[in-house]
Amino acid sequence: MPELVFFSGTMDCGKSTLALQIQHNRSARGLQGMIYTRDDREGEGKLSSRLGLATEAIEVADDLDFYTHVVQALTAGGRVDYVIADEAQFLTPPQIDQLARVVDDLEVDVFAFGITTDFRSKLFPGSQRLVELADRVEVLQVEALCWCGARATHNARTVGGQMVVEGAQVVVGDVNRPGSEVGYEVLCRRHHRRRMTAARARAAALSPEVLPVD
Question: Is 87 among the catalytic positions?
C-alpha cells in the first residue's frame, strides 16, 4: 500500500542525503518521481546535501497545491511513481493535507523530509501536521552530535557564534556559518537550555582564571 512517510531529525542528520538516495534507488529501477523542495541551502529549485550531492527540484511556494500539481502531470501523460518533498517543515499544513491526498486518492508514495522543531524548540506547523497524518514517522539514525559529543536533539540559531532565541521562525541559513552571519548549530538539550554554543564553550575555556592580587 502507498504511504506518507515522514523522515525527521535535527539539522546535519543526513535527511537530504537520504532523499537523494531514495530518488537514485527508484530512478535506477525505472521509476519516475516528482521532487519538491523549499528554501534549500543551494538556492531555488535544488535539492542538495552537505556531502556535495544535488539534483533539480520543483521549488514550492505557499500557493502550490501538491494534489493539483501531480494530477496535472498525470493528465499531461506523465508518470508519477513517487513524490519526494524535502524541507517539509517549511510547508503549510494544507499542503501536508494535499500530500496525504496524493497517497490516498492517487495511490502514490510520498516521502517527506524535514526537521521537527525550530531554533526555539517549537514545532514547525508543517512538521506538526506530518506527525499527525503520516503513516510512518522515521527518526533518522545518523545522529548529529553536539559540540560536547552528546547526541544533538535541538537546532540553535546563531549570530556570530551566539545563540539567539527571538526572530522569525524561518530564516534560511546553514550550519557552521562564519562571522556575523545567521547560522545554525545542533546542540544537546542541556546546552540548548544553557545557550552554550561551541563558540561560547571555546571562549569560556580560553578565559584566564582571575588570580588573587595582594
Answer: yes
